[in-house]
Amino acid sequence: MKKGIFTLLAALLLVNISMAQNDATEAQIDALLAKMTLEEKIGQMNQYSGFFDATGPAPAEGYTKERYEHIKTGMVGSMLNVRGAKEVRAMQELAVENSRLGIPMIFGFDVIHGFKTTTPIPLAEAASWDLEAIEQSARVAAIEASAAGLNWTFAPMVDISRDARWGRVMEGAGEDPYLGCMIAKARVNGFQGQDLSANNTIAACAKHFAAYGFAESGKDYNTADIGLSTLYNVVLPPFKAAAEAGVATFMNSFNELNGIPATGNVFLQRDILKGEWAYKGFVVSDWGSITEMIDHSYAENGLHASELAVNAGSDMDMESHLYVKHLKKLVESGKIAEAKIDDAVRRILRAKFQLGLFDDPYKYCDETREETLIYHEDHMASALDIAKKSIVLLKNEGGLLPLPKEGKKIALIGPLAEDKNSPLGNWRLASDDHTAISVVEGMQAYPSNELTVSQGVALIEGETSFPSHVKLNEDDRSGMSKAVKIAKKADVVIMVLGEHGFQSGEGRSRSNLGLPGLQQELLEAVYKVNKNIVLVLMNGRPLALPWADDHIPAIVEAWQLGTQSGHAIAQVLYGDYNPSGKLPMTFPRDVGQVPIYYNYKNTGRPGPKNEVFWSHYTDQPNTPLYPFGYGLSYTSFEYTDLNISDPTADRTVEVNITLKNTGNVEGEEVAQLYIRDRVASVTRPVKELKGFKKVELKAGESKTLTFTLTEKELGFYNNEGKYVVETGDFEVMVGGNSVETLNGEFRLE
Ligand code: NOJ
């Protein structure tokens, strides 16, 4: 009892301290704002990308000279793409030592999945369903980035997407808003830690606000035209979760939403974000997205675009170069109220105060710290941990996996088997090329089997370092016969196939979801001589591989796992880690099914039916190849005793289930709980994830798992954006994926 009182008092004290700190910060911002000229305020709203060697001589003329002068005169609030303790210090000095008020700049960078130590692509990490490991991965990224002078990352991307054609699905948490919310929070906490002013934490940025993941036909930057129900219930929740977790900034997006570009969208940025959600951080535009409103046919010219963007609440101009040029005129002509400029600047200064930049503008610029922390062994350990947890076992017929550790002849075949670059993924600006542990290297750590290696076919033509266009190899089959030869002699063939690291990511949409280039041909040629194949997939998005699913006995989804990729894969193949990942996105049978997702609506013509007039395809089942939440283990799990309590007066429902490890080895299972609201004033999906637990069980061990459903899980947003909880019948489904579940129900009064 006493302990409880002390905890409560301590919590109250902390709240009081933080309120007092907030008041003090607001007073400091007021004082600074009062000293600033209109030009200086506008300067804070301007962000440039790194443009010259900061440690070298000053540029003599032209464009870079102008930017250099802008920094010195306080006309730049932030830089992106400058990194390194020494480089950032030099840039910061230019602003702090020369400008009238010496306001420090904030330095942003795309720290998306690791900095130097590269962790799995975010979609892969989402497959771990392990919030602690995901938070730790962001923590590692923050420690390394902050040691390299940075204090702001443009992550997490919290865009929900149902379309595997979109190249940026690799950067998000997949298709589900509930999982997306949990992961958004974990990532924000990982980057920002407990104390944003510490020198090893960085400001996070929830992006891209909003609906960027709903680009029509999966084509990047394309129009998003979605209904309010989807906007409120699917797109916005992870952004709200990030805001509630205290994310310091937001980034808007390139797309238009229902006819209004996000960058000029008053409804999104003013009404919802800064209005309803009372968000206090600032919004940075996406790269050039203010100018792009001209191409959207929404703004007449740069002047007009600036007016629209500021009035809609876009606080900082990333690389449109329009605010510095036009805002003064727009304020003087009354097109923008100075109060709106003050509001934007207040938000930007607040972030700088919170980061502690006014106490010490160079606090992130310690070269010794940088040297010690980059590629630190603890970071490698975290990267390996999350890499193993991200792997999803899709198929394992006849117990082909795990592999015996000795006495076997193993043929390792495929263009990605030796690749040290693709596993680093696309969004790894800072990591060093060709530094991932390849699958071959990972397998060599188990020397008691005989290993032979052949690429079979090249995946792409030419150099692999950040090519803007990956040119696929479509006709060089010269290595194929060697691959077939070694496959013939092997006990087991491991084929490492998939996408090149730069086939997913920004601007890299695909209209085909099969194995690119000649890989399918290679797979079938090898299969003809040896059917004992383990297919290891490396890819940045769900693929459609029905042939492989029909023929290949073992399939392992290994995404792009970062620096430790090969070790993680080998440890899973040899059973030193029992795979526990579950798909965060549905894998289709065919690209024609896309967008395909588990939480679809029932329609007025659900099926399956023995006639033609129901919602289906005539040439393909409605079901996916692998459903959301799916993933196998080297052991097996059994779900029994589903027990659902009656709702309490405050509408809380308890769901219990017994989970048993029925196999022979220890393993982890992600138990998932879904609900269906049978009848509602706005139609609800056939199922929605509302809880999950990742549980470790020894062979033969059972545990009772308890899930709690409250109004937070049982309601939804209606088309006025109001959260409602309605009475009626609910179904409850619990299982190891979104399809195979134990089902029950309850009624909410
Ligand atoms: C454009 C991308 O859409 C965004 O996510 C990224 O942060 C910026 N470029 C800055 O690199």
Question: What do these coordinates show?
Answer:
This protein has 749 residues and is of the alpha/beta class. Among the domains are: 1-35; 387-593, Glycoside hydrolase family 3 C-terminal domain (Rossmann fold, 3-Layer(aba) Sandwich); 637-748, Immunoglobulin-like (Sandwich), CATH 2.60.40. 32% of the residues lie in helices and 17% in strands. The protein contains 21 helices and 25 strands. A six-stranded mixed β-sheet has the order 11-16-15-14-12-13. A five-stranded parallel β-sheet has the order 4-3-2-1-10. A four-stranded antiparallel β-sheet has the order 20-19-24-25. β2, α4 (85-98) and β3 (106-109) form a beta-alpha-beta unit. The protein binds 1-deoxynojirimycin. 1-deoxynojirimycin is lined by residues 110, 154, 207, 286-287, 506.
Describe the structure concisely for a colleague.
By secondary structure, the protein is an alpha/beta fold. It has 21 helices and 25 strands. Helix 2 crosses helix 13 and helix 6 runs antiparallel to helix 15.
Q: How many β-strands, per DSSP?
A: 25
Classified in CATH, the superfamily of the domain at 387-593 is: Glycoside hydrolase family 3 C-terminal domain
The CATH architecture of the domain at 387-593: 3-Layer(aba) Sandwich
Radius of gyration: 27 Å
Mean pLDDT: 96
Uncertain spans:
none
Note the quaternary state here: single chain
Q: Largest sheet, if any? A: 6 strands, mixed
**Distinct ligands:** 1-deoxynojirimycin
What would the principal axes of the Cα set say about the shape?
Answer: globular
Please give the count of helices. 21
The class by helix and strand makeup works out as alpha/beta
The main sheet orders its strands as 11-16-15-14-12-13
Return the CATH topology of the domain at 387-593: Rossmann fold
The CATH class assignment of the domain at 387-593 is Alpha Beta
Helix proportion range:
25-40%
> What is the terminal separation in angstroms?
35 Å
State which percent range the strand residues make up: 15-25%
